[in-house]
Design brief:
The structure is a single chain. The protein is an all-alpha fold and 78 residues long. It has a domain at 7-30 and 38-62. Helix content is 58%, strand content 0%. The protein is built from two helices and no strands. It has helices at residues 7-29, 41-62. The radius of gyration is 18 Å and the shape is elongated.
């Protein structure tokens, strides 16, 4: 029996998808670089990559842990 997907994973995945979708929509609507125009060109690409990653981290950090009733098959025997 497969373990359920933890809430933290669901939250991080959902936020990453939504932010990526928002960036794609903004890119489609704003075909020019006016959204990030004030930033130097070398900083625009890393910033666009860091925004979804940072928000996914925050969503995973803030989401509640899903308790498990079964033994974790990946737990180490100490």
């Amino acid at each position: 029996m497969a373990a359920p997907i933890e809430t933290k994973v669901k939250a991080s995945t959902t936020v990453t998808f939504l932010v990526g979708l928002a960036v794609a929509v903004l890119n489609d609507v704003q075909a020019d670089a006016s959204l990030l125009g004030p930033l130097p060109a070398w900083l625009q690409a890393p910033l666009l990559a860091l925004i979804p990653a940072g928000l996914a981290f925050l969503a995973g950090y803030r989401a509640r842990h899903t308790p498990r009733d079964v033994a974790d098959p990946f737990a180490r025997n100490v």
